[in-house]
Known about the structure:
It is a single chain. By secondary structure, the chain is α/β, with parallel strands linked by helices. The protein has a domain at 3-119 and 226-286: Rossmann fold (3-Layer(aba) Sandwich). It has twelve helices and twelve strands. The strands form three sheets. Strands 6-9-10-3-11-12 form a six-stranded mixed β-sheet, sandwiched between helices. The longest helix is centred in the last third of the chain and has 16 residues, at 208-223.
Amino acid sequence: MSADRAEDTNGRGPREVSEERSVESAAEVREETAPVIRMNGVGKSYGTVRALSGVDLQVRAGEVTCVLGDNGAGKSTLIKIMAGLHDYTAGTMEIDGTARHFGSPRDAVDAGIATVYQDLALAPLMSVWRNFFLAHELRKGPLRLLDSAAMRRITQDELARMGIDLPDVDRPVGSLSGGQRQCVAIARAIYFGAKVLLLEEPTAALGVKQSGVVLKYVAKAADSGLAVVFITHNPHHAYLVGNHFVILKLGQMVLDRPRDQITVEELTAQMAGGDELAELEHELREA
């Protein structure tokens, strides 16, 4: 998606915007690009509780892979495995073709996987530039003083590169809108070398306009070459930016399709229960 087309997403219907996504180019990328993350039969158990079972997932650069599911479906467990918070107990996970077990989030970060959680892990009272460089501060001179001028400049430049016009990066990040805070977190992950961007429910607490802003930058992240995993319970938001859709239910994959093999109506129906709803409707009509 080009920047001009991406900027048109605000205020437009899901079908109108989704038709502008290039199905053909996404299909070509899928055929030619090896997965950055490949999961084969991945499962996770907590004692006798099985949170995930038999998950097969491929995440490719330049694509938005949308993982959908209701509460308790296993979405959070899946993202925590990729982010290094939890280790899987069955199957294999390959990063760039090499089988990996992450012992900590630092291992995932070192492998190029950045996670933007729903709570963002930002310090509301700190400035935008301090949040941007949190734990990655630039220093100068023999006394290793903070190079605040360089960090301000880089923050402003990187936000502008993402299309975020924020002249005052000294303002507290807590004064930004929810959508702007999400975009700061996304820009930060890209700047610090992420190959894979994991997004946990980035639009869950946002209104329509702010959700549109975030979705625009999700698409830009994929267009810049990142592999994006978009965890959401909203099929309409997913369909606006997604190239590949996975639905989890009770820890198992019940759907795995590329964009050209599913419509937003089918995706919504599957999220809502699909065959189960049809069966329930039939029973109610007969009652």
